[in-house]
Specification:
This protein is of the alpha/beta class. The protein has helices spanning 45-53, 80-86, 98-101, 108-120, 124-137, 143-146, 156-168, 186-203, 214-217, 238-243, 248-255, 318-322, and strands at 3-14, 17-29, 34-38, 61-70, 73-74, 91-94, 174-178, 206-211, 223-228, 231-237, 305-308, 311-313. The strands form two sheets. The chain has an eight-stranded mixed β-sheet, sandwiched between helices. Strands 2-1-4-5 form a four-stranded antiparallel β-sheet, covered by helices on one side. Helix 8 (186-203) links the parallel strand 7 (174-178) and strand 8. Pfam families: ABC_tran, oligo_HPY.
C-alpha cells in the first residue's frame, strides 16, 4: 500500500468550541490507483489531505489520533524537516485555487524551478530549463516564451496546468489533487482530468482526487470514498457505487445529478444542511436529513459494515439502501 490513513481524528479549537473536522477516517491508495474522496463542503476532505501532507494549520488544528503511513512509514512522529523532504519528492498536492496558490510576484518559471533548486541543488539556469520542460509536458503553448510570465497572465485552465506541473516536478509517488477543476468550464475540466490521468499512467503514481462533483470522477477513479461530517460513510469500487449505492447519502448525491434521460422531471435534492462540526448529531450524523432514518439511527453510530470484500457502508440499513 502506497498510502494508508488509519483512524485519523483532527479537531480545531476555536473561541466558540471544538470543531471535530475528521472523525476516524481510514482509507488507502496503491501505486497507479486513483481514489476519489467525495462529499459536500465541510465534510473533512481537504482537512484530511492537509493532515496527510503535513500542512495543517497548528494551532488551531490538531491531530488527536490515528496514523498516516506513506510507503510503510508513519509520517506523524516525523520532525518538520523530515516531512519537508518528503513533500515534493515523495508526495505533492495540487490546490483548488491556482491563482491563490501561486505567488503573484514571481514568474511561473521561478516557482517551478524552485523545486529543483531546493530538492536537487540545481543552478537557477538549469532549473529554468527544467521549468520549460515541465510546461511543455503539461501542454502549455510557447513554454519557452511564457516561462517568464506571471500567474495573472495565464487563463484559469493554464494556471491549473502550472499547478499540475509543479506537483509533478520531482515525479512523486503520490499526488493529492484538491478540487483541481473548481471554477473551470466543462471543456477545460475534461482537459485537466485527461491530462492528470495520462500523466498518472505515464509515471505510475497514486492519485487521491478530492471533489464534490460525482461527474468529474466517473471515468477516472478506481475507488470512491464518500465523506460526511468528518467520516467515510461509504467506500466502494467506482462502478459498484454508481450502479447501486449502499448509503442514503451517496444515493442522495447521485440523485441530485442532472440526467438527460430525466429531462422535464423535478431535480431531487438532499434536504437540510450538513451539521455543525461543533455539534455533530448523536448516532448517524446524516439522520436529520435521511428520508429513511429510524430510531436506531438517532442513537447508535453505525460502524463500517462489510457489504462485500471490497466495499463498506456506515449505514444500519445498507441492505435496504442497496436494493432500494
Amino acid at each position: 500500500m502506497l498510502l494508508e490513513v488509519r483512524d485519523l481524528h483532527v479537531e480545531f479549537r476555536t473561541r466558540d468550541g471544538v470543531a471535530k473536522a475528521v472523525n476516524g477516517v481510514s482509507y488507502g491508495v496503491d501505486a497507479g490507483e486513483t481514489l476519489a474522496v467525495l462529499g459536500e463542503s465541510g465534510s473533512g476532505k481537504s482537512v484530511t489531505a492537509q493532515a496527510v501532507m503535513g500542512i495543517l494549520d497548528v494551532p488551531p488544528g490538531r491531530i488527536t489520533h490515528g496514523e498516516i503511513l506513506f510507503q510503510g512509514r508513519d509520517l506523524l512522529p516525523l520532525k518538520e524537516e523530515e516531512r519537508r523532504r518528503i513533500r515534493g519528492a515523495g508526495m505533492a498536492m495540487i490546490f483548488q485555487d491556482a491563482l491563490s496558490a501561486l505567488n503573484p510576484v514571481l514568474c511561473v518559471g521561478d516557482q517551478l524551478g524552485e523545486m529543483f533548486v531546493v530538492h536537487r541543488g540545481m543552478s537557477r539556469k538549469d532549473a529554468r530549463a527544467k521549468a520549460v520542460e515541465l510546461m511543455d509536458r503539461v501542454r502549455i503553448p510557447a513554454a519557452a516564451q511564457r516561462v517568464r510570465d506571471y500567474p495573472h497572465q495565464f487563463s484559469g485552465g493554464m494556471r491549473q496546468r502550472i499547478m499540475i506541473a509543479m506537483a509533478l516536478a520531482l515525479e512523486p509517488a503520490l499526488i493529492i489533487a484538491d478540487e483541481p477543476t473548481t471554477a473551470l468550464d466543462v471543456t477545460v475540466q475534461a482537459q485537466v482530468m485527461d491530462l492528470l490521468a495520462e500523466l498518472q499512467r505515464e509515471l505510475g503514481m497514486g492519485l487521491v482526487l478530492i471533489t464534490h462533483d460525482l461527474g468529474v470522477v466517473a471515468d477516472v477513479a478506481d475507488r470512491i470514498a464518500v465523506m460526511y461530517a468528518g467520516r467515510i460513510v461509504e467506500s466502494a469500487p467506482v462502478h459498484d457505487l454508481y450502479k447501486a449505492p449502499a448509503h442514503p447519502y451517496t444515493r442522495g448525491l447521485l440523485d441530485s445529478i442532472p440526467r438527460l434521460d430525466h429531462k422535464g422531471r423535478e431535480l431531487r435534492a438532499i434536504k437540510g444542511l450538513p451539521p455543525s462540526l461543533m455539534h455533530i448529531p448523536p448516532g448517524c450524523a446524516f439522520h436529520p436529513r435521511c428520508p429513511t432514518a429510524q430510531d436506531v439511527c438517532r442513537t447508535d453510530v453505525p460502524p463500517p459494515y462489510e457489504v462485500d470484500e471490497d466495499r463498506r457502508s456506515a449505514c444500519h440499513f445498507w441492505r435496504e439502501c442497496l436494493h432500494g
